[in-house]
Amino acid sequence: MYHNFKMVATTMFGLEEVLATELTNLGAQDVEIGVRNVSFVGDKGFMYKANIALRTAIRILKPIKRFKVFDEDDLYKKIQQIEWERFMNVDSTFAIGAVVNSKNFTTNSHYISLKSKDAIADYFRHKYHKRPNVDVKHPDLKIHVHIHKDLCSISLDSSGDSLHKRGYRNLTNIAPINEVLAAGLVLLSGYRGDCNFIDPMCGSGTILIEAAMIANNIPANINRKEFGFENWEDYDEDLFFKIQDVLLKKITNSHFKIMGFDKAPSAVRKAKENIENANLSEFIGVHHINFFNSAKEVFGKTTILFNPPYGERLDIDINQFYKNIGDTLKGGYPDSTVWFITSNKEAIKHVGLRTSKRIPLKNGDLDCVYVRYDIYEGSRKAKKLKKNNETDADNLEEE
């Protein structure tokens, strides 16, 4: 029987509640929302499950020590007091990442990483007359040092590479959306595979792939080659495969359409290849179509979700571009819930539709807003008129 311990899942700004819901649904205990992170309790098997299944987590950290810290020398001494043999040996390779938010430390995060690295290397040198090597690219153990005011947390990174590296995306375009953000956008939209789904400016297909995995309950990181915990001293391979099998048995089948358009043939090619890498070709169709010359060809309720150009990198009249988006949606996409993310809060006014929801998010360093528009079967005016006529007819019958 494995014992429970506290873990921290890091995420992007604005996705904390989505991640907390994911963790609760997965079976985590004592879920608590922080800023860009969610803490929770689970055992070793749950740590494996969280890494394989979570869509909006960037890393799953396992804290091993917390202490008060006053300066660099104090940090060095306290890191040396940890029994590092429990987590690695003298032949292991390691790497350290640090985040510092404290007036006690005038140095930058890089210096804190170096100081922590020296403390661990010297610990082994004093005891075994040999130092473990640092390997920044493929370490056996990735360690996180987080200092906030006078509190320091030392954690082991169970994920290794960031969890946004799903393992399916070989080809990208100029400004590819991060996979974790793409999954977060789909989950925030409420889409769960229960209606049609369109990304009208699909680029290399990331949003489509994340949507298809959500629609069919496919674990987000099932295509990953490796997780950090696989190199840990206490890695349990049988348990890992057992957890993976249980998750694979929960895959479902959505029968609604998932479609992507792009006006660039190169983007369509890249999207198709990435979709094939993710083993999702049977669920997603990608077409060489200019959205502005398109209309909705599927019946029934549809979620439209896209990440249009913000104007930062492209030489276009962004106000006119956003006006064209609004006109195309109004004219050709009835009975749709539309979501898109942008950092251009001025240009969004030119869409010419009323937003029914606005959610602040970050895309990299950019402050963004994620907006929702509801496009009805007819116009609101026509809908209201129809309703009034029906009411008048009912009243006449009653008379």
Automatic annotation (TrEMBL):
Keywords: Methyltransferase, RNA-binding, Transferase. GO terms for molecular function: RNA binding; rRNA (guanine-N2-)-methyltransferase activity; rRNA (guanine-N7-)-methyltransferase activity. SUPFAM superfamilies: S-adenosyl-L-methionine-dependent methyltransferases, THUMP domain-like. Residues 46-158 form the THUMP domain. InterPro entries: DNA_methylase_N6_adenine_CS, RlmKL-like_Mtase, RlmKL-like_Mtase_CS, RlmL_1st, SAM-dependent_MTases_sf, THUMP_dom. CDD domains: THUMP_AdoMetMT. Pfam families: RlmL_1st, THUMP, UPF0020. It comes from the Bacteria. PANTHER family: RIBOSOMAL RNA LARGE SUBUNIT METHYLTRANSFERASE K/L, RIBOSOMAL RNA LARGE SUBUNIT METHYLTRANSFERASE K_L. This is Class I SAM-dependent RNA methyltransferase. It comes from Gramella jeungdoensis.
